[in-house]
Write a structure and sequence with these properties.
The chain is of the alpha+beta class. The chain has two domains: 17-183, no CATH class; 194-274. 39% of the residues lie in helices and 25% in strands. The protein contains ten helices and nine strands. It has helices at 2-15, 120-125, 133-138, 169-176, 181-184, 188-191, 196-204, 210-220, 226-241, 245-274; strands at 18-27, 32-33, 39-52, 65-77, 83-89, 99-105, 109-116, 142-146, 152-155. The strands form two sheets. Strands 1, 2, 3, 4 and 5 form a five-stranded antiparallel β-sheet that branches. A four-stranded antiparallel β-sheet has the order 6-7-8-9, with no helix packed on it. A hairpin with a 5-residue loop joins strand 2 (32-33) and strand 3 (39-52). Helix 7 (196-204) packs antiparallel against helix 8, helix 8 (210-220) runs parallel beside helix 10 and helix 9 (226-241) packs antiparallel against helix 10 (245-274). The radius of gyration is 23 Å and the shape is globular. The protein starts with a helix and ends with a helix.
Length: 275
């Protein structure tokens, strides 16, 4: 009997280790325009994760369950809206604050570099077992992307100052605000494999962050019907009605953003019917 209860308690605890899915999507520092301002080169840091909850969040928030992480260099064409990944880093932390990034745009190539912000020299000199020496050294390289060949090669650190046309975070966000997680390379069905029904149930219970819920709707769009949308919005509002006044006020912004996204999809479905 004791063994049964112990297993039951363990199952309950394990089923509630993590909360809903959240997204961190940030730009690296020192993004640059091309000389004619038609292109922008920048680092992009993305992490999709589930926060620890309950006992697993003690004492300092716990360790999140990372579903996806990526650090890449992109080039965005401000005229055509074309987004091109020119290089992808592997096996490095997606925490932007851990890294110092540099990008330059020249007539023949894009030059870029990433390195840890602080402490890496000491870590290499007095390294412990958990320091990945090869990773540190590999990411100290400078890289050059050739405009014509579309190939990336390693190069020595530049000896002369390179031309740099800075772009602010605000301007970068404005240029790329329409780009979805899928455009950045995050496939919801690979990162968080669930059935359509399960995804809609979780959206209606406001289980995930706003950003992830909206991305789920985006990537579910080809499978959605007007009936799916009506039922999910109805369930969402019923769920909200069951909350306290304080909880409802805290959730209202998320609810409105999700419903607005559903209405956009519904409008597209109706327009496609009329064609």
């Amino acid at each position: 009997m004791r063994k049964f209860f112990a297993l039951l308690i363990l199952a309950i605890l394990l089923s509630g280790c993590y909360g809903g899915v959240k997204v961190i999507s940030r730009f690296g520092r020192n993004a640059t325009y091309s000389p004619d301002s038609t292109k922008i080169v920048f680092f992009k840091f993305i992490q999709v994760y589930k926060s620890a909850k309950g006992l697993w969040a003690l004492p300092d928030g716990g360790k999140p369950k990372v579903l996806y992480r990526n650090v890449s260099v992109f080039c965005f064409n401000t005229i055509t809206d074309e987004l091109t990944r020119i290089f992808e880093y592997s096996d490095i932390s997606s925490n932007r604050d851990s890294w110092k990034t540099k990008t330059y745009y020249t007539d023949t190539s894009i030059i870029f570099n990433i390195e840890p912000t602080i402490g890496w020299k000491s870590e290499l000199k007095y390294r412990t077992a958990d320091v990945d020496t090869l990773m540190h050294k590999r990411n100290m390289y400078w890289f050059s992307y050739n405009h014509n060949t579309k190939k990336v090669v390693t190069i020595p650190p530049p000896e002369q100052e390179l031309p740099y046309w800075p772009i602010s975070f605000d301007d970068l966000r404005e240029h790329t605000s329409h780009i979805t997680l899928k455009d950045w390379g995050v496939d919801i069905f690979e990162v968080y494999p669930q059935s359509k029904r399960q995804m809609l149930n979780e959206i209606s219970s406001l289980y995930h962050s706003t950003a992830f819920s909206i991305e789920m709707i985006d990537q579910l769009t080809p499978q959605l019907t007007e009936r799916d949308i009506r039922r999910t919005v109805r369930r969402l509002d019923r769920y909200l009605d069951k909350q306290s006044d304080y909880q409802r006020s805290m959730m209202l912004g998320k609810r409105n953003a999700i419903v607005e996204k559903f209405m956009e999809v519904k409008q597209d479905l109706q327009q496609n019917k009329e064609k």
